[in-house]
Description:
Low-confidence stretches: none
Helix content: under 10%
Strand content: 35-45%
Number of strands: 46
Structural class: mainly beta
Mean pLDDT: 92
Number of helices: 1
Radius of gyration: 56 Å
Strand order of the largest sheet: 7-14-13-10
Largest sheet: 4 strands, mixed
Shape: elongated
Distance between the termini: 149 Å
Amino acid sequence: MVSPLNVINSTVTWSSSNPAAASVNAGGVVTALSVGTAVITASTQGGAHTAGASVTVLPVSVQSITLNKNLLELNIGASETLAASVLPSNATNQAVTWTSSNNAVAAVNSGGVVTAVSTGTAVITAETADGGLSATCAVIVSSITVSATGVTLNRNTLELFVNEAETLTASVQPSNASNQNVTWASNNPAVATVDADGRVTAMSAGTAVITAATVDGGHTASCIVTVPISVTGVTLNRNTLALVTGRSETLTASVLPANAANQAVTWTSSNTAAAVVDADGVVTAVSAGTAIITATTADGGHTASAAVEVEGVLIAGTIWATRNVGMPGTFVENIEDVGMFYQWNRRVGWSSTNPLVNSDGDTSWNSTNPTPSVSFWAPPNNPCPPGWRVPTREEFESLRNAGVEWRLHNGIDGRFFGTAPNQIFLPVTGWRTSTNGGLTVGTQGRYWSATATPGVGNTATRLWFTNTSLHIYLGSGARADGNAIRCVVE
């Protein structure tokens, strides 16, 4: 009220120190807006006089809470949102918290969204932050039956060897079908069995059909299992192989049984410095020595082997044997072995040590002049192994000119011919005389050539050497003498 009452201008203006808490209009009507305090001031015209009143805005307390539903019925996996109404509607604090009495059955989030987890019951509670008032909703979760409509397997066909195993996987449709169980069966357990988890095991050669059937509805899916005939072994067409350096021969592997599914083999050499083998079994001699060539089956790892003996060293354009001739058609075992003595152009060998005996078991020396009219060692009388022959005079001359050195080898005197690594060792041999086969031993090496001495019917050329420096020459010897043989490749 403006004093005095008879004042000429009684107009006042109104203002609030905190309009967010309380506002005032031109008529002095104060409206509470939010919790807090404000000073409402009336001012006379010109502001000469004022009066104020303190206003306190108190919060509006929550009186109750309700939910839009007091019962929810949900299927597993389904969701629904509950709505909470806090009263009065202008209550200052509208916040609520949500809880479930059984999260294993039904869960609720901060927005009131209820999700069915498993069959059973639960109570969803909304509680006010102001006053702790609450409202509840009962939730009943039920399971619905989703029928199986089919089943598929991860494999339609399967190949397994005997004793191999693999697990098949069955997928029931739809993926949310209530009953995901299947049963497994084999129509031929003698060929392939299957266990309760779909693990298939091959038992014997043949075919079998593995079937998965849904427990719900009996829907089926099948996989054809093929068990090939397994390899039981492998053989080679040769157990031994004699090759000359630089030459090749093919080994053939036969996988057993002949109708085994996997006929593949791999080839290996135990000594590639002596002999190599390619993927087709072609063996190539590299240098003198021995190697074992092995064929291994891809199925089962079965093996078969052939012993390869590589003979020969290339010197001055000719491949020379590394060992002397022993029994007719064979080489001696060691390069320092003398072997047997042969009369020129005859295939019968004689012992290089006493007592005197020949390769036929006879002890009577033949002192007759062998074929005086022949000028070259006849092929039918060749004492060398197959593929080899007695060298000519010219070949011995080339060997002699390729380099020579006298020295011991494994305790045996002799001469190395050629230059490393292409060298051969010719041991000191001694000889048997033409008249009676008497044995002479010492520091001499005597080796027949295939060439007769021109114009002399009872002699032939031979390589003759001793330990005397450079005392190496091709001379003539009586054809009935017994000398050693060192072969060259035919």
